[in-house]
Design goal:
The chain is α/β, with parallel strands linked by helices. Helices cover 31% and strands 21% of the residues. Helix 7 packs parallel to helix 8 and helix 12 packs across helix 13.
Length: 418
């Protein structure tokens, strides 16, 4: 939402998430005017189907708009629709003066840093064109340190980058790099490890696409304390995270153990109370963990059945399953903390969990904001969305949206069409 003041009068331009969160926001701006861009109307139309709270709010917003425009002419809409009657009916007191809706294309030259018509969540990555080196390589410096290659570049695109943002450079010299630091129009880039090569596997797992390669680089980086991975089911979020955790816990001894937790929200009817200890109560909610551990233990083919059994026992001895209900007041030292299904956390719950991290602890948030199970959260109010936005400019955090499913062709089709 943005506002413009003209001679003491304010014009509020509403973003889609405002009306998705509260349909009555149209009538809550008192004596000021409200403007709806066409892009907002298109997004509302695309989000009206479903049984989620967001879909219900969108349908209510559309009903308000239909009521306001039912008897209005094109000239009335351009001049602005009065909001006094509806606002008074809702008990909001002084109403917004009028509602204006975009009816024609507005031509304007946006600054280079503006995203234009893109309206999506921060993806953590960017595609650079074939002309990147020609437009940014005139004053480029390069060097190597501890076997890694670095570049210092300057140019107009640099100012839009974030720390630890992943960049895919095309052209004659294609490569994948990560933004290590940035000051103004100057940035230091580091060439990423290619985890798609068999020689660079992580606990027997290789990246299958560029997004997974980005994710493994962030997960394996000891200088990054917080990583968020967002993607639909089957994109490899949990498998990559566990593989990186096991490699750094058992092989590199960087962390003492892996701790995994998630919100316990059933998809169907609740099955009642569960017996046993905290870990035993959480085990039924950790099916994804067990499925992925089964895949990871099968990658150990050298020792036969006995070797796999020994590896399985070692892995389970270093993984702890914890409930969110007992997290307050705790401090985790040198742990690899995985917050699964993080889209179901509120912003306050997210703050409570992330602040449990002590020295040497790495926190990984996994989730899919299109699959929120709690009725009290939406894509815009989810703690996962909140933490991605707040952490994107911190030099010790990284974020990637995994877009390509790798589970099966059936799962890929179902995720995209159901």
């Amino acid at each position: 939402m943005s506002k413009q003041t003209i001679a003491g009068k304010r014009l509020f331009v509403l973003d889609t998430n405002v009306l998705m969160h509260d349909p009555t926001a149209l009538f809550r701006f008192h004596e000021h005017d409200v403007f709806l861009p066409m892009a907002v109307l298109e997004e509302l139309d695309n989000a009206k189907v479903g049984m989620t709270e967001v879909a219900r709010n969108v349908r209510q917003t559309n009903r308000f708009l239909d009521e306001l425009t039912s008897n209005a002419t094109h000239s009335d809409i351009e001049a602005g629709l009065p909001l006094d009657t509806r606002s008074a009916a809702l008990g909001n007191g002084q109403a917004a003066r009028k509602l204006s809706i975009q009816t024609r294309i507005l031509k304007a030259d946006l600054p280079d840093g503006m995203p234009g018509s893109k309206k999506d969540l921060y993806s953590g990555r960017a595609e650079l064109g074939d002309d990147f080196w020609s437009s940014h390589g005139d004053s480029m410096d390069s060097w190597q340190k501890e076997g890694r290659t670095f570049y210092r570049v300057k140019g107009p695109q640099v100012e839009t980058w974030h720390p630890n943002q992943c960049l895919a450079i095309g052209g004659e010299r294609p490569m994948e790099v990560v933004v290590r630091s940035r000051e103004g129009d100057s940035a230091v880039l580091e060439v990423m490890v290619d985890f798609r090569k068999p020689s660079h596997s992580v606990w027997g797992i290789n990246a299958r696409n560029v997004d997974q390669n980005f994710a493994l680089n962030l997960l394996m980086d000891p200088d990054i304390d917080f990583v968020s991975l967002v993607g639909q089911a089957g994109t490899g979020k949990t498998l990559l995270t566990l593989a990186a955790g096991l490699a750094q816990t058992l092989d590199d001894k960087r962390y003492s153990e892996i701790i995994m937790t998630r919100v316990t929200i059933p998809v169907g009817e609740a099955i009642g109370f569960l017996p046993g200890t905290e870990e035993e109560k959480m085990t039924p909610w950790m099916g994804a963990l067990m499925d992925n551990l089964e895949v990871l233990t099968k990658t150990d083919q050298g020792g036969g059945d006995w070797g796999r059994a020994a590896t399985n026992d070692l892995i389970h001895s270093r993984i702890r399953i914890r409930s969110l209900n007992f997290m307050r007041g705790r401090t985790f030292l040198n742990k690899y903390l995985i917050l699964d299904e993080a889209q179901n956390l509120t912003s306050k719950q997210m703050k409570t969990l992330v602040t449990r991290a002590g020295p040497g602890t790495k926190v990984i948030c996994l989730g899919n904001i299109a699959q929120i199970d709690t009725p009290y959260l939406t894509e815009t109010s989810s703690g996962l969305t909140y933490v991605v936005d707040r952490f994107k400019d911190w030099e010790h955090s990284g974020h990637i949206i995994l877009r390509q499913g790798e589970r099966s062709r059936l799962a890929d089709f179902a995720s995209g069409n159901l």
